[in-house]
Amino acid sequence: MTKQETETNMNRLVQYLTDKGVKVEFNSIGDNAYFPIPNIIAVNTRQNIYSRYYSLLHETGHYLLRQKADFSTKYLVDHSFGSKNKDTRIDVLREEVAAWDTALQFAEDNNFEFDKVKWNHYSKKFIYQYALWTVNPQRFDNDD
User: Is the pLDDT of residue 144 over 50?
Assistant: First the structure.
């Protein structure tokens, strides 16, 4: 996919999310994230266009997962235990993997273009980072 095709798909995805009531914010501070309350997806603009697009797709996966009725029975959504709680860390990792899988299915079902090689690169890169955090959160947490 060219940069222009990526941008076109990203704009289409932003429109889809906006139509669903999800606000998408692009900024140069902070991490990529989906915030269920107040229903916002944040995407960091310091990433290249491809990484931004795949990050937005991934965060869309989080949004879609959290719309499912069984979400709270599958994942520990009370993160108040902090990163020291092994069960919470495992559920965060499980949700991260599921968000990538959900986003992939969504992209295929809704004809959002993506490069399979780039998809595999980005999904494995970010899942690996979460796997490292799951095993050793102190390496990533400044407040622990």
Answer: no
